[in-house]
Amino acid sequence: MRSGQGGTDDGVRLGAAELGAPLGERATLVQFSSAFCQPCRATRRVLAEVVRMVDGVAHLEIDAEARLDLVRGLGVVRTPTVLVLDAGGRVVRRAAGQPRTADVIAALGAVI
To answer: Which parts of the sequence belong to the Thioredoxin domain (predicted)?
Structure first.
């Protein structure tokens, strides 16, 4: 995924308790959004399209303002930020800004 803030978060794991929803069977796309963020709406559409195309992948959208604890703990500095989690909830990729469908699929390919 292209990224203004890229890379991995070595050793960071997230689960249903932290995210408020179950993880995907094979991978999870966690999107941090804010209410007035136009790129967040476009990102939501891109990630929903990927979830329809790739079995076992879940998309969870988190309101950054409502979950400041998680935002601060993960070092999220802008919205949208997307984290790619493997089946065990380990953060394997992170990108800030609106992703392209092909980049999301490529990031998932490294996970599943």
So the answer is: 26-103
